[in-house]
Task: inverse folding
Protein backbone atom coordinates (compact mmCIF):
# COMPACT_ATOMS: atom_id res chain seq x y z
CA UNK A 1 0.00 0.00 0.00
CA UNK A 2 1.10 3.57 -0.71
CA UNK A 3 1.25 5.39 2.66
CA UNK A 4 0.72 8.77 0.98
CA UNK A 5 -2.52 7.98 -0.82
CA UNK A 6 -5.96 8.71 0.61
CA UNK A 7 -8.19 6.24 2.37
CA UNK A 8 -10.67 4.35 0.22
CA UNK A 9 -13.48 6.73 1.21
CA UNK A 10 -11.22 9.79 0.71
CA UNK A 11 -12.87 11.31 3.81
CA UNK A 12 -11.28 13.29 6.62
CA UNK A 13 -10.80 11.54 9.95
CA UNK A 14 -13.53 12.27 12.49
CA UNK A 15 -11.18 14.25 14.78
CA UNK A 16 -10.31 16.76 12.05
CA UNK A 17 -11.29 20.41 12.81
CA UNK A 18 -12.97 20.67 9.39
CA UNK A 19 -15.35 17.94 10.61
CA UNK A 20 -15.95 18.92 14.26
CA UNK A 21 -15.19 22.67 13.97
CA UNK A 22 -12.76 24.85 15.92
CA UNK A 23 -13.80 25.45 19.56
CA UNK A 24 -13.74 28.90 21.14
CA UNK A 25 -12.70 29.35 24.79
CA UNK A 26 -15.19 30.86 27.26
CA UNK A 27 -15.02 34.65 27.47
CA UNK A 28 -15.04 34.78 31.27
CA UNK A 29 -14.44 32.01 33.84
CA UNK A 30 -13.57 31.56 37.53
CA UNK A 31 -9.92 31.94 36.49
CA UNK A 32 -10.48 35.70 36.05
CA UNK A 33 -12.86 35.99 39.00
CA UNK A 34 -10.31 34.45 41.36
CA UNK A 35 -7.55 36.65 39.93
CA UNK A 36 -9.61 39.81 40.41
CA UNK A 37 -10.54 38.82 43.98
CA UNK A 38 -6.89 38.11 44.83
CA UNK A 39 -5.59 41.42 43.44
CA UNK A 40 -8.43 43.45 44.99
CA UNK A 41 -8.07 41.98 48.48
CA UNK A 42 -4.28 42.32 48.33
CA UNK A 43 -4.58 46.00 47.39
CA UNK A 44 -7.08 46.54 50.20
CA UNK A 45 -4.71 44.87 52.68
CA UNK A 46 -1.75 46.96 51.46
CA UNK A 47 -3.78 50.18 51.79
CA UNK A 48 -4.93 49.18 55.28
CA UNK A 49 -1.37 48.51 56.42
CA UNK A 50 -0.15 51.84 55.06
CA UNK A 51 -2.98 53.73 56.78
CA UNK A 52 -2.22 52.40 60.26
CA UNK A 53 -0.20 54.24 62.88
CA UNK A 54 2.58 52.32 64.56
CA UNK A 55 6.27 51.51 64.68
CA UNK A 56 6.71 51.37 60.90
CA UNK A 57 6.64 47.60 60.42
CA UNK A 58 3.19 47.79 58.89
CA UNK A 59 4.41 50.53 56.51
CA UNK A 60 7.23 48.28 55.32
CA UNK A 61 4.82 45.38 54.87
CA UNK A 62 2.33 47.56 53.01
CA UNK A 63 4.93 48.91 50.60
CA UNK A 64 6.37 45.45 50.04
CA UNK A 65 2.90 44.06 49.35
CA UNK A 66 2.17 46.79 46.79
CA UNK A 67 5.43 46.06 44.96
CA UNK A 68 4.69 42.33 45.14
CA UNK A 69 1.26 42.88 43.56
CA UNK A 70 2.83 44.82 40.68
CA UNK A 71 5.37 42.04 40.08
CA UNK A 72 2.63 39.38 40.28
CA UNK A 73 0.38 41.14 37.75
CA UNK A 74 3.32 41.71 35.38
CA UNK A 75 4.20 37.99 35.47
CA UNK A 76 0.52 37.06 35.13
CA UNK A 77 0.12 39.37 32.14
CA UNK A 78 3.26 38.07 30.44
CA UNK A 79 2.31 34.39 30.61
CA UNK A 80 -1.32 35.18 29.73
CA UNK A 81 -0.10 37.06 26.64
CA UNK A 82 2.03 34.09 25.59
CA UNK A 83 -0.99 31.81 25.80
CA UNK A 84 -3.12 34.33 23.91
CA UNK A 85 -0.52 34.49 21.13
CA UNK A 86 -0.49 30.68 20.90
CA UNK A 87 -4.29 30.58 20.78
CA UNK A 88 -4.46 33.04 17.90
CA UNK A 89 -1.72 31.25 15.99
CA UNK A 90 -3.83 28.11 16.21
CA UNK A 91 -7.26 29.66 15.60
CA UNK A 92 -6.12 32.06 12.85
CA UNK A 93 -4.26 29.34 10.95
CA UNK A 94 -6.81 27.28 8.98
CA UNK A 95 -6.35 23.54 9.21
CA UNK A 96 -5.21 22.25 5.83
CA UNK A 97 -6.07 18.96 4.19
CA UNK A 98 -2.99 16.91 3.39
CA UNK A 99 -4.01 16.37 -0.24
CA UNK A 100 -4.14 20.14 -0.91
CA UNK A 101 -1.57 21.56 1.53
CA UNK A 102 0.83 24.13 0.05
CA UNK A 103 4.46 24.90 0.82
CA UNK A 104 4.73 27.34 3.74
CA UNK A 105 3.25 27.62 7.24
CA UNK A 106 0.51 25.05 7.80
CA UNK A 107 -1.63 23.44 10.46
CA UNK A 108 -2.35 19.73 10.07
CA UNK A 109 -4.28 17.24 12.17
CA UNK A 110 -4.16 13.52 11.56
CA UNK A 111 -3.06 10.10 12.69
CA UNK A 112 0.51 8.86 13.12
CA UNK A 113 1.52 6.19 10.63
CA UNK A 114 4.95 4.58 10.10
CA UNK A 115 7.34 6.53 7.88
CA UNK A 116 9.74 5.23 5.23
CA UNK A 117 12.08 3.82 7.91
CA UNK A 118 9.29 2.31 9.99
CA UNK A 119 8.99 2.89 13.74
CA UNK A 120 11.34 2.61 16.70
CA UNK A 121 11.60 -0.13 19.31
CA UNK A 122 13.03 1.26 22.55
CA UNK A 123 14.32 -0.40 25.71
CA UNK A 124 13.58 1.93 28.60
CA UNK A 125 16.60 2.05 30.89
CA UNK A 126 18.37 -0.19 28.36
CA UNK A 127 16.39 -3.23 29.53
CA UNK A 128 14.51 -5.50 27.13
CA UNK A 129 11.98 -6.19 29.89
CA UNK A 130 10.78 -2.61 29.44
CA UNK A 131 10.54 -2.61 25.66
CA UNK A 132 8.09 -0.33 23.84
CA UNK A 133 7.44 -0.75 20.11
CA UNK A 134 5.81 1.25 17.33
CA UNK A 135 7.30 4.54 18.55
CA UNK A 136 8.08 7.67 16.48
CA UNK A 137 9.02 10.06 19.32
CA UNK A 138 9.89 9.25 22.92
CA UNK A 139 11.56 10.26 26.14
CA UNK A 140 12.22 8.27 29.29
CA UNK A 141 13.88 8.78 32.65
CA UNK A 142 15.32 6.55 35.33
CA UNK A 143 14.94 7.66 38.96
CA UNK A 144 16.28 6.49 42.31
CA UNK A 145 14.57 7.05 45.65
CA UNK A 146 17.15 8.75 47.86
CA UNK A 147 16.88 9.57 51.56
CA UNK A 148 19.21 12.04 53.27
CA UNK A 149 19.54 13.50 56.78
CA UNK A 150 20.34 17.08 57.67
CA UNK A 151 22.52 18.27 60.56
CA UNK A 152 19.56 17.95 62.95
CA UNK A 153 18.97 14.33 61.97
CA UNK A 154 15.77 15.07 60.07
CA UNK A 155 15.32 12.68 57.15
CA UNK A 156 13.97 13.75 53.76
CA UNK A 157 13.35 11.49 50.77
CA UNK A 158 12.74 12.21 47.10
CA UNK A 159 13.15 10.78 43.60
CA UNK A 160 16.41 11.75 41.89
CA UNK A 161 16.84 11.44 38.13
CA UNK A 162 19.80 9.24 37.24
CA UNK A 163 19.48 8.72 33.48
CA UNK A 164 17.33 9.98 30.63
CA UNK A 165 16.83 9.12 26.98
CA UNK A 166 14.94 10.49 24.00
CA UNK A 167 14.70 10.09 20.25
CA UNK A 168 12.62 10.63 17.13
CA UNK A 169 11.81 8.92 13.85
CA UNK A 170 10.24 10.48 10.77
CA UNK A 171 6.60 9.47 10.44
CA UNK A 172 3.62 10.03 8.17
CA UNK A 173 0.71 12.19 9.28
CA UNK A 174 -2.45 10.91 7.59
CA UNK A 175 -5.77 12.77 7.77
CA UNK A 176 -7.80 10.52 5.50
CA UNK A 177 -7.21 12.58 2.35
CA UNK A 178 -3.53 11.67 2.16
CA UNK A 179 -0.26 11.29 4.02
CA UNK A 180 2.65 13.67 4.49
CA UNK A 181 6.09 13.08 6.01
CA UNK A 182 6.85 14.80 9.34
CA UNK A 183 10.31 15.28 10.86
CA UNK A 184 9.75 15.46 14.66
CA UNK A 185 13.45 16.06 15.34
CA UNK A 186 13.10 19.55 13.82
CA UNK A 187 10.84 20.65 16.69
CA UNK A 188 12.58 21.88 19.80
CA UNK A 189 9.88 20.37 22.00
CA UNK A 190 7.54 17.54 21.01
CA UNK A 191 4.65 17.55 23.46
CA UNK A 192 3.91 13.89 23.91
CA UNK A 193 1.42 14.28 26.75
CA UNK A 194 0.79 11.90 29.63
CA UNK A 195 3.19 9.07 30.43
CA UNK A 196 2.59 5.77 28.68
CA UNK A 197 3.89 3.53 31.45
CA UNK A 198 5.87 3.48 34.69
CA UNK A 199 7.79 0.53 36.11
CA UNK A 200 8.82 0.40 39.78
CA UNK A 201 11.32 -1.90 41.46
CA UNK A 202 12.17 -1.27 45.10
CA UNK A 203 14.03 2.09 45.13
CA UNK A 204 14.08 2.52 41.36
CA UNK A 205 11.48 3.54 38.81
CA UNK A 206 11.39 4.13 35.06
CA UNK A 207 8.88 6.33 33.21
CA UNK A 208 8.32 6.56 29.45
CA UNK A 209 6.39 8.99 27.26
CA UNK A 210 5.80 8.18 23.60
CA UNK A 211 4.15 9.28 20.39
CA UNK A 212 3.35 6.06 18.57
CA UNK A 213 1.72 4.73 15.42
CA UNK A 214 -2.04 5.15 15.63
CA UNK A 215 -1.92 8.18 17.95
CA UNK A 216 -3.71 11.42 17.00
CA UNK A 217 -1.28 14.24 16.25
CA UNK A 218 -1.54 18.02 15.91
CA UNK A 219 1.12 19.73 13.81
CA UNK A 220 1.78 23.46 13.37
CA UNK A 221 4.92 23.92 11.30
CA UNK A 222 6.33 24.67 7.88
CA UNK A 223 5.74 22.52 4.81
CA UNK A 224 8.82 22.20 2.60
CA UNK A 225 9.66 20.41 -0.62
CA UNK A 226 11.76 17.29 -0.09
CA UNK A 227 15.07 17.05 -1.92
CA UNK A 228 15.70 14.10 -4.22
CA UNK A 229 18.04 12.60 -1.60
CA UNK A 230 15.24 12.74 0.99
CA UNK A 231 12.77 10.80 -1.14
CA UNK A 232 12.57 7.05 -0.71
CA UNK A 233 13.00 4.69 -3.63
CA UNK A 234 9.89 3.78 -5.58
CA UNK A 235 7.89 6.77 -4.39
CA UNK A 236 4.65 7.48 -6.30
CA UNK A 237 5.29 10.94 -7.71
CA UNK A 238 1.68 11.39 -8.82
CA UNK A 239 0.64 12.11 -5.22
CA UNK A 240 1.55 15.72 -4.45
CA UNK A 241 2.01 15.28 -0.69
CA UNK A 242 4.67 12.58 -1.23
CA UNK A 243 7.04 15.35 -2.38
CA UNK A 244 6.58 17.35 0.85
CA UNK A 245 7.81 17.25 4.44
CA UNK A 246 6.70 19.18 7.53
CA UNK A 247 9.37 20.63 9.82
CA UNK A 248 9.37 22.82 12.89
CA UNK A 249 11.25 25.68 11.25
CA UNK A 250 9.98 28.93 12.74
CA UNK A 251 8.63 31.71 10.55
CA UNK A 252 8.74 35.26 11.94
CA UNK A 253 5.73 35.81 14.19
CA UNK A 254 4.74 32.15 14.13
CA UNK A 255 5.01 29.53 16.84
CA UNK A 256 5.50 25.88 15.91
CA UNK A 257 4.00 22.94 17.76
CA UNK A 258 3.91 19.17 17.52
CA UNK A 259 1.47 17.66 20.01
CA UNK A 260 0.01 14.28 20.70
CA UNK A 261 -3.72 14.90 20.33
CA UNK A 262 -6.00 17.06 18.20
CA UNK A 263 -6.65 20.79 17.89
CA UNK A 264 -9.38 20.42 20.52
CA UNK A 265 -6.94 19.00 23.07
CA UNK A 266 -4.43 21.79 22.34
CA UNK A 267 -7.06 24.53 22.82
CA UNK A 268 -8.57 22.98 25.94
CA UNK A 269 -6.25 24.87 28.32
CA UNK A 270 -6.28 28.22 26.52
CA UNK A 271 -8.06 31.44 27.53
CA UNK A 272 -10.11 34.03 25.68
CA UNK A 273 -8.77 37.48 24.72
CA UNK A 274 -10.72 38.97 27.63
CA UNK A 275 -9.04 36.69 30.17
CA UNK A 276 -5.60 36.70 28.54
CA UNK A 277 -5.20 40.41 27.78
CA UNK A 278 -7.95 42.67 29.12
CA UNK A 279 -8.27 41.34 32.69
CA UNK A 280 -4.48 41.28 33.41
CA UNK A 281 -4.11 44.81 31.97
CA UNK A 282 -6.99 46.13 34.08
CA UNK A 283 -5.54 44.49 37.19
CA UNK A 284 -2.08 45.90 36.39
CA UNK A 285 -3.60 49.38 36.09
CA UNK A 286 -5.42 49.05 39.41
CA UNK A 287 -2.30 47.74 41.16
CA UNK A 288 -0.33 50.76 39.89
CA UNK A 289 -2.89 53.34 41.10
CA UNK A 290 -1.71 53.30 44.78
CA UNK A 291 1.72 54.50 43.62
CA UNK A 292 0.12 57.65 42.20
CA UNK A 293 -0.95 59.08 45.55
Result:
Amino acid sequence: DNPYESNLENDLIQEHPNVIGTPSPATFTLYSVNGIIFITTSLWLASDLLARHGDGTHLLLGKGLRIGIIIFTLIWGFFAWKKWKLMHNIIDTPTSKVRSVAVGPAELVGQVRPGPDGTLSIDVGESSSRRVQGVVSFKWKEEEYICTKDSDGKESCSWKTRRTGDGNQEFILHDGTGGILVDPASWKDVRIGEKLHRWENSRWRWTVWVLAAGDPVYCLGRVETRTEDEKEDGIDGTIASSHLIVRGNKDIGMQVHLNRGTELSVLSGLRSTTESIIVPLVMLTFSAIPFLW
